[in-house]
Design goal:
Elements: E1 17-19, E2 24-27, H1 39-44, E3 47-57, E4 61-70, H2 73-83, E5 89-90, E6 96-99, E7 103-108, E8 111-117, H3 124-138
Antiparallel strand pairs: 1-3, 2-3, 3-4, 4-8, 5-6, 6-7, 7-8
């Protein structure tokens, strides 16, 4: 039996970040309950489960961390490449990572991690990257 990995840093583990929700887990068959309308692309890429948790940075910037566990690294790669736009900046995270003004997406092995902030603040890009590194270290 595989050990369950909790990739979500606890409150206080990363400077300025607080975990503000319980982790929710969705099996592949239930993914539509979380990302209705977009679940199909994850299912076709081999998603096994999705875990999500909310965070807040310095009491202001709210972000959601989604960790998609795929059957294999190829599935994580497929989803990541499909969603990239020309304003993506490559960042050194996991096996491959990209950052945007309000989000960071990276893959590590069979995991695809998507971190999205709900507003744009001057320190959002750096704060999201710090959160991404915290998640990466736990995968």
């Amino acid at each position: 039996k595989k050990k369950i990995v909790d990739p979500f840093p606890k409150s206080g583990a990363l400077a300025g970040w607080e975990k503000t929700s319980e982790t929710r887990v969705f099996a592949a068959k239930d993914l539509w309950q979380y990302i209705d309308g977009d679940a199909e692309q994850y299912l076709s890429a081999g998603v096994v489960s999705t875990s999500t948790s909310d965070y807040k940075y310095q009491g202001q910037l709210e972000a959601t961390v989604d960790v998609y566990t795929m059957k294999d690294a190829a599935g994580a790669s497929k989803i990541m490449e499909k969603g990239q736009t020309k304003d993506a900046k490559t960042v050194p995270l996991g096996d491959a990572g990209v950052a945007y003004a309000q989000s960071v997406i990276f893959r590590k092995g069979p995991s695809l991690v998507r971190i999205v902030a709900y507003e744009l603040t001057p320190d959002a890009p750096q704060a999201l990257l710090a959160l991404a590194h915290g998640v990466e270290a736990k995968l």
